[in-house]
Amino acid sequence: MSMLSGQPILILREGSSRNKGKDAQRNNIQAAKVVANIVKSALGPKGMDKMLVDTMGDVTITSDGATILKEMDIQHPAAKMMVEVAKTMDDEVGDGTTSVVVFAGRLLEKAEELLDKNVHPTIIVEGYRKAADKALELFDEISISVKPTDKSMLMKIAKTSMASKIVREDRDYLADLAVDAILKVAAKRGKEYIVDLDDVEVEKKAGASLVETKLIEGMAIDKEVVHTGMPKRVDNAKIALLDCALEIKKTEFDAKIQIESPEQIQAFLDEEERMLRIMVDKISSSGANVLICQKGIDDLVQYFLAKKGILAIRRAKKSSMEKLAKATGAQIVSTVDELSGKELGKAKLVEERKIGDDKWVFIEGCENPKAVTILVRGGTEKIVDEAERSLHDALCVIRDVVQKSKVVAGGGAPEMEVASRLKKWAEGLSGRVQLAALDFAEAMEVIPMTLADNAGLDPIDILVELRSRHDKGDRWAGVDVFGGKVEDMAELNIYDPLVVKEQIIKSASESACMILRIDDVIASGKSSAPPMPPGGPGGGMPPGMPGGY
Ligand SMILES: Nc1ncnc2c1ncn2[C@@H]1O[C@H](COP(=O)(O)OP(=O)(O)OP(=O)(O)O)[C@@H](O)[C@H]1O
Ligand SMILES: [Mg+2]
Fold first, then answer.
1. Residue 504 CA: which ligand is closest?
2. Quick one: 432 exposed, middle or buried, by C-beta within 10 A (0-12, 13-18, 19+)?
C-alpha cells in the first residue's frame, strides 16, 4: 500500500502559508485599502497630522504620506507595495505621496466591485492600463505652460505644497527661500534647466523660530574654529580645501630610532617642527586666509596657522567639502604642495557664530554659488524635522517645474476635469474593458472627495457640484477647503506641477494592476533567523523536520 495515496504532496517547507485565487486577491486588496485609509485623513490643507512612535519610543509628527508609511512597521506584502509606491513618488517627484496611495486604494476598491460582478482581473488590468495612458494624455492637454524661472508661479507651486503641512503659517517666508535656493543652483542646458537637489544643503538646528530659517549663499558647517588664537571672522576670504591630514605622516611600519643623547631628541623634534612650519608657510604663501581640512590638524600646525592669522576648521565631512568646492569655486587639493593660489575659493565672509549651544562656521556671500544651504530653525526638534520634510517637498516641486515647466491648478480640479474627459473617451470602448476604464475615471474623483471630507464638507454634495461645473467647461473648479465651497482653484493661486499628477497616475495604476494580477501568495514560514526551538540551542527539532545538519 502506498503511503502517499490520498495525501497531498508537500513541496513547500513546513510552516509556509499559501493563499490562492480569489482569496489571495481579496486579501491583498483589503491590505492595500487599509493602508490607503490610514493616510487618507492626512490629504490636503485640512488633513490631520499623524504621530508615529517607533520601537525605540521616538516620536515623529508629520502629515507627509511617505514619512507616515516609512515609519510604520508594515508586514503584509501587498501593504508593503503601497509603501513602495509612496517611496517611488518621493524619489521621482517629491510630492503627492498621500494622493498616490489614496488613489491606488480607490482603484483597488473599484476593482473589487468589478471582481464581484465576475469581471476577470486581466480585463480590469487592461481597462485600467488604457485609461491610465489616456489620463496622462489628458493631463498634458489641460496643463498650462509656464516659464521655468517665473518666480511668481514657482512661489505658488511651493506654497501649495506647503499648504498641507504643519509649517503652513510660515509658508510665504519658506517658499521664498526655497525658490531662491533652487534658482541659484539651476543650471542652464540649452533651452532647459537642470536642478540637482543635492546642491541645496538643508541643515537644521532647533532653538529659534521658523522665520529665522535662512538661505545661505554658501554653507554653514557644524564645526568650530580649531584654535582659540585664530580669527573668528575673515572678510574677503580666500579658502583652501584640503583633504589630507596636516601632520607628520606616521610610518606604515614600526621603525625604531635609536636615540643616544638628549641632543638627538631635540634635533628630532626640531626637524618635525621645521617640516610642519614649511607646511604652514606653503598654505600661507598661496594667499589662503581660511583653511578647511577634511582630516586632522596637528596641534603645532594649529598654533602656526593661528600666528599667520588663518582661520581653520578640521574634520569637515567629505560631502561638505564637495559642496564647499561648488559654492566657493575652490578645488580640493590632496597635499599642501599642490596649493599655488588658483585652487582657492572665495567668499565675502567666513565667520564662526553661536547657533543655540553650538558653534558653527558660516561661509557666506559666495559669488555665483553652485551650492547653497538652507539652515532650518524652529522651536523644537519635532518642528524642525517636519519643517525640513516640508521644505524637501517644496524644493522638489519647484525643481519639478523648473525642469518641466507645466502646471495644473490643484484642489482636485484637474482630477475632476480629466475624469470627466476620460468618461467621454471611455464610451468609445467596448464591453467590460469600458466598465474598468469608467471606474478608473471615477476613482480619480477620490482626490476632490477626500479633500472635501477632510475639510468637514459633504463629499457627495461637493462631487455633484464639481461634476456640473466641469460639464459647463469650468476647468479649474475644485474644492476650496478654507472657504468650504467649490471655487476656481487657479484664481486661488493653488497650483501643482504636471509631473506630480503624471506620476500619481503612473505609479498608482501600476501598483494596482500589479496587485490585481497576483492570484497566489506563497509565504515562507521561516524567517532568516528562526525562533529558537524550546529547550534552547541544540534542543529538539520541530516535529516533522528532517534530521539536523
Ligand atoms: N488651499 C487648498 N485648497 C484646496 N486644495 C489644496 C489647497 N492646497 C493644496 N491643495 C491640494 O492638496 C493636495 C495635496 O495634499 P497633500 O500635500 O496633503 O498630499 P500629497 O501632496 O498627495 O502628499 P505629500 O505631500 O504627503 O507627499 C493637492 O491635490 C493640492 O492641490
Ligand atoms: Mg503635498
1. 1
2. middle
Q: Which ligand is nearest to the Cα of residue 407, counting in written order?
A: 1
The whole-number pLDDT of residue 321 equals 93
432 in helix, strand or coil? helix
* One-letter amino acid for residue 187 of the chain: A
Let me know the angle formed at the C-alpha of 471 by 146 and 430, rounded to the nearest 5 degrees: 100
pLDDT recorded at residue 153: 96
Q: Give the position, in ligand 1's atom list, of the atom nearest the Cα of 410.
A: 31
CA of 379 to the centre of ligand 1 (A): 25
Closest to 176 in 3D by CA, of 217, 219, 214:
214
pLDDT of 251 reads: 58
Asked if 247 contacts 297 with a C-beta cutoff of 8 angstroms, the reply is yes
DSSP-assigned states of every residue in 451-472: HHHHTT--HHHHHHHHHHHHHT
Scan for cell 562656521, then name that residue. Answer: 361
Of 39, 113, 30, 112, nearest in space to 79 by CA: 30
Task: Encode pLDDT of 449-458 as tens digits.
Answer: 999 999 999 9
Residue 346: pLDDT above 60? Answer: yes
Task: Indicate the SS3 state at residue 373.
Answer: strand
- Report pLDDT digits (tens) over 226-248: 999 999 999 999 999 999 999 88
Residue 191: pLDDT over 60: yes
Residues with a catalytic annotation lie at 64, 97-98, 393
Tell me how far apart the alpha carbons of residues 350 and 371 are, in angstroms, rounded to a whole number: 16
Find out whether 463 and 423 touch, Cβ atoms under 8 Å.
no
Of 181, 75, 148, nearest to 401 by C-alpha is 148
| Residue 62 in contact with ligand 1 by CB distance below 6 A | no
Q: Establish whether residue 411 lines the binding site of ligand 1, counting it when its CB lies within 6 angstroms of any ligand atom.
A: yes
Q: Determine the straight-line distance between the first and last CA of the chain, rounded to whole angstroms.
A: 31
Q: CA 543, 546, 549 angle in degrees (round to 5)? A: 120
CB burial string 102-132: b at 16+ within 10 A, e below = bbbbbbbbbbbebbeeebebeebbbbbbbbb
**Which of 189, 212, 180 is CA-nearest to residue 398?**
180
Cβ neighbours of residue 356 under 8 Å, at least 6 residues apart? 205, 206, 207, 208
Kindly report, residue by residue over 151-173, the tens digit of the pLDDT: 999 999 999 999 988 888 899 99
Whether the CB-CB separation of 74 and 83 falls below 8 Å is answered with yes
